[in-house]
Amino acid sequence: MSNPVSTMILGNAEAKTCYYLPNAPTLPQGWCYHQEDALATLIEINGNHWRKILTIMAKLSAPDADWKSYRDTQLLKHNEQIMIEASHLSLTAERHIIVGAVAAAKLNINSANDLFNSLDEQDKLHANGLGVFISPYLDYRQFPNNLIEQLKPYLNK
């Protein structure tokens, strides 16, 4: 009998913005989100895939246009957390970004539900008006800059 997968949290567990992802990165022994080189280490070990994920998160979360500096020095340290394999929403977050269909299914959340409205013409971003957003996976092909710019104002309210 296999053990159920438990939720992994990366970043500040008290953060007001939570990203829900389906798969965990590989983490080195002793890794901690508040280490100065935490994200550089995560990218080094996990490669381009996690660099893209963290870059899109930084573009959504940065308070200004300098998302690269934000990614490299601030992301996950104060204002964001990532919950992986989550089956419930974070109790501390005010903004919930559910990334992709796999994460949404695990949370039993469906964008076709009447509570969710589309935020874009391509019908890729959805919100329920209560701080819960369903987005495409954090990859440039699925979540290009024009979609980032459409979602960002909702996250900075």
Give an overview in words.
- The structure is a single chain.
- The protein is of the alpha/beta class.
- The protein has one domain.
- Helices cover 31% and strands 17% of the residues.
- It has five helices and seven strands, in the order ββαααββαβββα.
- The protein has a seven-stranded mixed beta sheet.
- Strand 5 and strand 6 form a beta hairpin.
- The longest helix has 14 residues.
- It starts with 7 loop residues before the first strand and ends with a helix.
- The relative contact order is 0.19.
- Pfam families: DUF6942 (PF22098).
- InterPro entries: DUF6942.
What is the radius of gyration? 15 Å
Look at the structure and give the mean pLDDT: 92
Structural class: alpha/beta
Low-confidence stretches: none
Largest sheet: 7 strands, mixed
Pfam families: DUF6942 (PF22098)
InterPro entries: DUF6942
